[in-house]
Amino acid sequence: MKITIIGHGYVGLVTACVFADFGNIVYVIGHTKEKIERLKKGDPIIYEPGLKEILERNIQAKRIFFSLDYDSIKLSEIVFITVGTPPKENGEADLTAVFEVAKNIAKNLGNHFTVVSCKSTVPVGTNKKVETILKKYSPKNSQFAVASCPEFLREGSAIADTIYADRVVIGSESKKAIDMLLKLHEPIEGRKVVTDLASAELIKYTSNAMLATKISFANLISFYCEKTDADVEAVLDAVGLDKRIGRVFMYPGVGYGGSCFPKDVMAMIDVGKKLNIDTLLLEAVEKINLQAKENFLQKVLKFNQGKKIALWGLAFKPNTDDIRFAPSIFLIENLLKKGFEITAYDPEAKKNIEKIFGNKIKYSKDPYEAVKNADQLLIITEWNEFKQIDLQKVKKLLKKPIIFDGRNIYDPSLMKKLGFKYYSVGRI
Ligand code: UGA
């Protein structure tokens, strides 16, 4: 099929590359000349494992094309909107980019039937608004239908998540649009769920809100454990054996970050308030997430052994360079205010953090260099390379053998044996 994808962020570019890899012709539209030029040369701009290879392969095979203009809309059977929907001050999802793009699509629609589908996470009712815009700005004889086709990929494992999806959700009032989307998604694993527009939009928010709730619940239990000398991992391991509950996505830590959970929980609260729904539970999820970060900060403020901090992990999770709503930002801001000196290490996210903090913090090229002469080490992101690092060497390089681990990477009894003072989350 011929498809156009508008937006080339984590969702847009991954989706484009995967569909191109399946043999489709994919046109990607962006609005920054410099970025489009980089993409044309095979530079994905963002870091996502495996993305560069799949991008280069499909450029070579002439299955993926990048452009600033909307000409490809006329050639495309399906158009996906994958632009950002960042939160406004009041938590509402900012849909400016979605509506702007919808207008541009409308003006460029051809004579054939076109499906216009939002893959961006948008509040329930947005696709109806997109439909109104399409009707208003499209040429008289154009034929189109809107569909909601939310994306469930995670950064860091985006390509595998797209190909081996748990489910593909397609919501539309048009049978023809549903059939075309089913055809495009055929090679993708996972159950195909066909539903109405509003339900499809709500499925995405419900999934993210549920996952965020699981994390906040795990963090809440970690607070109980810290006050009672219980071990949160032991508690959740046993609780998770109950098949009705499960252990997946119940890992406590320094709170969830990223471009999705914080923004989507906020947007769901905003929509709920507009619909006169009591959003108490979701507000608690948000509050506990902040408490998780605050709790870790207070531990560092209470038990630190000096002003020099080594910090491992800046990205909001491993295998990405994304720092949007990363807990590291909250911690760095607050620690700098308290007069700490920070030397940070992250395999991918340094460049992005530098845009915020510049030379207010120092950066290291490797984890060992970061801990040299530091009074303590803070671990904020569980990159694989920290899991089996030479802890004896880390101990020798640190001025004091103290680790504050916000991701529970190490076994507390082993750390004790190695001579560390080890503070983790919800464990003695
Ligand atoms: C999340 C969802 O998992 C995807 O299904 C969804 O498509 C995506 O949002 C989106 O809406 O676009 P993502 O934010 O990329 O994906 O990454 P996750 O793996 O979900 O992690 C989010 C945050 O939760 C990270 O900060 C992670 O450290 C934290 N987390 C995750 C925990 O603190 N504990 C856990 O048990 C799991």
Structure explained in plain terms:
The protein contains 17 helices and 14 strands. With 428 residues, the chain is of the alpha/beta class. Helix 4 (96-108) packs parallel to helix 5 (126-137) and helix 11 crosses helix 12 (327-337). The protein starts with a strand and ends in a 5-residue tail after the last strand. Uridine-5'-diphosphate-glucuronic acid binds next to helix 8.
**Count of β-strands:** 14
Q: What's the CATH architecture name of the largest domain? A: 3-Layer(aba) Sandwich
CATH superfamily label of the largest domain: NAD(P)-binding Rossmann-like Domain
SS-derived structural category: alpha/beta
- Chemical compounds bound to the protein: uridine-5'-diphosphate-glucuronic acid
Helix percent band: 40-55%
Please outline what is shown here.
With 428 residues, the protein is of the alpha/beta class.
Summarize the SSE layout with pairings.
Blueprint: E1 2-6, H1 10-21, E2 25-29, H2 33-40, H3 51-60, E3 64-67, E4 78-81, H4 96-108, E5 113-118, H5 126-137, E6 143-148, H6 158-163, E7 167-172, H7 175-184, E8 191-195, H8 197-228, H9 232-240, H10 261-274, H11 280-303, E9 308-312, H12 327-337, E10 341-345, H13 350-357, E11 362-363, H14 367-371, E12 376-379, H15 384-387, H16 391-397, E13 402-405, H17 412-417, E14 421-423
Parallel strand pairs: 1-2, 1-4, 2-3, 4-5, 5-6, 7-8, 9-10, 9-12, 10-11, 12-13, 13-14
Antiparallel strand pairs: 6-7
Helix pairs in contact: 1-3, 4-5, 8-10, 8-11, 10-11, 11-12
List the keywords.
428 residues, alpha/beta, Rossmann fold, 2 domains, eight-stranded mixed beta sheet, six-stranded parallel beta sheet, 17 helices, 45% helix, 15% strand, binds uridine-5'-diphosphate-glucuronic acid
